[in-house]
Amino acid sequence: MNYASLDAVFRSEGITQYAAIPFSACRVTLQRLLDREPGFVPRTVLLYLVPYYAGPTENLSLYAASRDYHLFFRSFGEKLIGYLQTVFPDGGFRSYGDHSPINETDAAAKAGLGVIGRNGLLIHPVYASLVFIGDLVTDVPPEDFPGCREPVEVAYCENCGGCVRACPTGILSGNGSLCLSAVTQKKGELTPEEKELILSHGSAWGCDLCQVSCPHVKRAIKSGDALTPIDFFKSDRTPRLTYDLVANMPDSDFKSRAYAWRGRKTLLRNLALLEGKDGE
Ligand code: SF4
Ligand code: SF4
After folding, report:
1. How far is CA 69 from CA 147, 237, 252, in A?
2. What pLDDT digit, counting tens, does each position of 246-255 carry?
């Protein structure tokens, strides 16, 4: 394979950080995804980081202001596979972003793309944790996949404790069981405790507190390093949600957002609570 050409495929989408490691080094967490394809023998994993930060948000997670990142991964995954099939016509390729058979954070750390933070996120030296991790699994053996490297030992952050102190529920220190991000995504009725959590932090969708409190993320934002060069994440952003905006969003627009997967009712419930329309 012409490694420079693979680099060109990544760089054409603004992606500069990628690495391949043997599949055997990865932790399989969703075996059923592999079981669906009994003829496919995974041998190599190509991991890459997709920076998504395009500016601050007001009442939703940073990642959710742009259109749904799954759309980006679907389109880029097809492009990547299209290229690799020209190089390995007999190769099998499976592209993932988010719903992978392997633990992507662990694999990216083993591929040397960053360290693992106490908040559970991958921290890259430039982008910090403001990245999505994509991976492509192939049956092409590691020795035939140029650039494939031996996995490195997983390294961890310096454990400054900033994320633990910033977490509003205590879940990171083992003193709580709720995660605000999960609460905003929960369907159905909220408990009084969950409502209070949303109200006291003003979040309609997600929670970035354990991320933006991290000194690596602060540095990446302040220096400008975190800013994504990728148009998909820079355009068509909604950094603030309102009840009326979401209620009147055309289906085609709503479905192109990462928060759509829990349904419009879930998000409207949170926004009604935040705007004092709860129970109206
Ligand atoms: S997302 Fe928010 S609530 Fe969840 S662990 Fe991080 S800081 Fe805590
Ligand atoms: S805030 Fe500190 S402990 Fe938490 S992930 Fe960042 S460096 Fe690690």
Report:
1. 26, 12, 15
2. 999 999 999 9
**pTM score of the predicted model:** 0.95
Tell me, in angstroms, the distance from the centre of ligand 1 to residue 234's CA.
Answer: 25
> Are 38 and 60 in contact, with CB atoms under 8 Å apart?
no
Helix extents (H) in the chain: 3-11, 31-35, 69-87, 104-110, 162-166, 180-185, 192-201, 209-212, 215-223, 231-234, 243-247, 251-254, 264-274
pLDDT single digits (tens) 185-224: 999 999 999 999 999 999 999 999 999 999 999 999 999 9
Nearest CA to ligand 2 atom 2: 160
One-letter amino acid of 123: I
Beta bridge partners of 156: 116
Model confidence over 8-61: pLDDT tens digits?
A: 999 999 999 999 999 999 999 999 988 888 899 999 999 999 999 999 999 999
Instruction: Classify residue 82 by burial, with Cβ atoms within 10 Å: 0-12, 13-18, 19+.
Output: exposed
Q: Identify whether the C-beta of residue 69 lies closer than 8 Å to the C-beta of residue 52.
A: yes
Q: Scanning the structure block, which residue is given the tokens 């043997």?
A: 22
167 Cβ closer than 6 Å to some ligand 1 atom: yes
